Sequence to fold (594 residues):
Amino acid sequence: MPTPSSDPTEQAKKSGDADKGVPLKTVPLRHPGRLVSGAILLVLGAMLINSLAFSTVTRNGKSQHRFQWDIVSHYLFSGRVVRGLEVTLELTALAMGIGIVLGIILAVMRLSPNPVLTTVSWVYLWFFRGTPVLVQLLFWYNIAYVFPQFTLGVPFGPSFVTIDLNTVPVFLIAGIGLGLNEGAYMAEIVRAGIISVDEGQVEAAQSVGMRRLQTLRLVVLPQAMRLIIPPTGNEIISMLKTSSLAYAIGLTELLGSVVLIYSANYETIPLLMVASIWYLAVTSVLTVGQYFIERRYSRGAARPRVPWIWRKLGQNLRYIRPPHDAPSPVGGS
Amino acid sequence: MTGQIEGSHNDMVRAEGVHKSFGRVESLKGIDLTVQAGEVLCIIGPSGSGKSTLLRCINHLEKIDAGSLYVDGELVGYSRRGDRLYELRDREVCKSRSAIGMVFQRFNLFPHMKVLNNVTIGPIRVRGVPAEEAKAQARLLLTRVGLADKMDAYPNELSGGQQQRVAIARALAMEPKLMLFDEPTSALDPELVGDVLAVMQDLAQEGRTMVVVTHEMGFARQVADAVVFMDAGVVVESGPPDQVLGNPHHARTRAFLSKVL
Fold:
């Protein structure tokens, strides 16, 4: 559209050009708001970098970097912190392993035609989603007070295996406790995935004579994976951070190890920075891994494959200010 | 099995007074029907008449509420001991299903498997055929339905007509004694219908027993040995295609045919 003009002859001349067959040029819509907000963001970013890296503060009469990066870098790769990180990673792996397996079992039970299994699954979810995970951890930690021994055997008859619950290492208690809780959440994720698979797929599998569990394993679960993977990635990332609750039952994981250090030297903030940097680093690695697994399981999906991260970022950047030769929605020239 | 009935050894499908309800809706109100071995039966009728339900009952995808349904002389989904019918276990139902091929309106191919694996999974996992043997057989079947060049494609890379031909190959791979087709061309673009019908006609000429729920009157007239017209859960009229389609006795059949022909 031409700009509004008070001169009627000019307008007439312009529309006359179009009538003669000169193609009309399209002008993409301008987005000044995006430029302004981008500029504001740049200023805020500069302030943040300044405060993180350059600004100083006077403590006890000495001028120091605000975040004491020298102390952060001193402890970042120190033996105790790295050992704590290892414990955190192992704990996350154990808890998520238990959680995923348990989640699949609970979801299948919930969707089974057997009312006994459905009820058991429902009660499990009700209990574990209804109580805080920290409370559960503290409960498992003190379980030996209620049940000093765990015995496998015939009810009211002979026993085969007996475990003294006072001797179970705290790492196992934390891993199993977090895993049992995670199982309840994973069950809902898996169940949503299974339900999303078209009923026709089950019928097709049955029509070639597959049995119920074969249908689930070969046909339903592989297709449900596409919906199960992204929220499971979130759960793993969430578990990495939730595992810090194990500090409350005395496990020296990542948070526990930095707390031990700063309670001796009182360098609280730099050591919390150390822990945060490690949590962020591992989360970033997990995010990239999640992206590749999602690509793997989108095979044969009707929607296009997940675009390459950097291309997506590039698209976003271009979106702020579309280039002049970008094709206009009406087709242009 | 004591489901064998006298003088019926030639019947591939035999339905006697089959009833099926979904909640309060009675979908089948006493169906009697016979399909001889080697015969092609086409079931026609308006939507909601129960034709798909009947087909699904034959495969025991739906349980019947009353009556009896025999496939190859054996009761579907039940075994008879004395004067009682005992529901079969999942294992036994699956075994009898594996001998009945089914082709669905919406194809229902497994989207996460390549075409070849769609065809081999039944033989390998259900019948226990060695993988190499199953693959060789699948290649033959896919060549037969004209898709030799699509074995490594995923289903969503194929047209509807191609997907339906893969679905037919998948059903044939189980070497079924009976093939069920549930409106196999209804979800297809018109220009793709012909290829699928050609494959089905080919199967009919080979002497396969087929029950086809269809709206393709041309196919029914040309290929069927018998046509059944169903409406509102009952068989209104049945007989040779020339009679049912060409010279129907019932007013309801005539009214339906005047709309679709």
Observations:
- The first strand of chain B starts at residue 11 and ends at 22.
